[in-house]
Amino acid sequence: MDIDLTCPHCQQLDFAQSVPAVHVDGISTSSGTDFYSGVGVASTGLVPVLGTATVERTHTTALARSLAREPAQRPVARVTVLGLLLSLPAMLVVLIGIASLAASHEATNVGELAGAALFVGGIASPGLFVLGIAVFRGHCNARISRGRRTAHAVWQAAFYCHRCGLVFWPFSPTPGIPAKHAFTPQHFRSIVWHAGGYANI
Predict the structure, then answer these.
(1) Is 112 helix (H, G, I), strand (E, B) or coil?
(2) pLDDT digits (tens, 9 = 90+) for 75-110
(3) Distance between CA atoms of residues 79 and 188, nearest Å
C-alpha cells in the first residue's frame, strides 16, 4: 500500500519528517561539572568549603515540547512523605487524647470533644492538604499511564512539515482523526492528549 507523505499544506515531501523523529531530535543531554561553595563547621570553627559535582542536564527544544506525546508525570513519593510528616503532630495529639480519656474516670462533655476535634483538625489540615495533592498527582499519573498506548498510536503516525511548521497524518490512525489535514503543533498535541484521555490534566 502506497502512503502519500506529502504535506497537505505545501504539497511537498522533502521537509516532512515523522513526529517521533522530530521529538527525538529535539531532546539532547549534556554533562558537565558544577562548582559549589559554602561554610562548614569544624572543631576549629567555621571553615570555607569548596566542591564539585558532575551533573547531567536534559535540554528540550520548544518544538519537541509542543509535540509531546503526554504531559510529564509528577512525582508523588516526596509529597506523600511530606504529608505524612506534617500529619505526625495531629496523630500524636490524638493518641495522647485517647490515652487521657481512657485514664480519666470522669464523663467528658460534648463541648470538650468538639473543641478537641477542632484543635486536631487545625493541626492535621496542612498534612491532609499535602496528602490531597499527592492523591491528585497519583490520579493524574494513573490517567496518563492508562492512556499512553492509545495516544502513542495516534502520535507516532503523524508527520511534521519543517517548511510549513504544521503536523498532519498521511492516514487516519484511529476513527475521528482526519487524514491529510494540517494542524499547528499545539492543536496536534491537544488531539493526541484527547485520544489518551488526559487533555484536561
Answers:
(1) helix
(2) 999 999 999 999 999 999 888 888 877 777 676 677
(3) 32
